[in-house]
Amino acid sequence: MTRLVRELGRTPVHLGPGGHAEVLPAYTGGTDWYAAYARRTEADGADGRLVALHGLDADWDTWEMHPNGDEVVVCLAGELTLIRESAEGSHIREDLCAGGYVIIPAGVGHTADVAGLATALFITSGHGTQHRPVPDPPLFLRLCERVCQTETIGDKRQADWQTCATRGL
User: What is the CATH number of the domain that holds 82?
Assistant: First the structure.
């Protein structure tokens, strides 16, 4: 008999039309794995969903945008901050802790900052996903962030660059 139990962090799942679920090859990270996934599931188009579990230990170095469907991000452990781009070009930061989730609408660019370690579940309409690098912040903001991260407010680390800027740090 075939073993049915899998580890989602190693072998993601593709949900296709008609309620079909397919175990995917082991996740190896990087663009090659995603390119192979896109080829394998191309016929499903926008109706397909990638279900993946990722351990996160650093800020993302890319912005991503899913043009053909919404993405559900569920924080299962730790904390992370999802950053969305508004239509006006500003950034909307949303803090997630274990059990919290956000639905990122189709066509909205997003990235994430991770304060320590976090685990998140992603349910994504990956067809046509676009990536672009997160630019390095200007030197002033990097210095400001370093100063603010040493400061605490209550039991929370302060890393709000705008607060630093208004204080002249």
Answer: 2.60.120.10
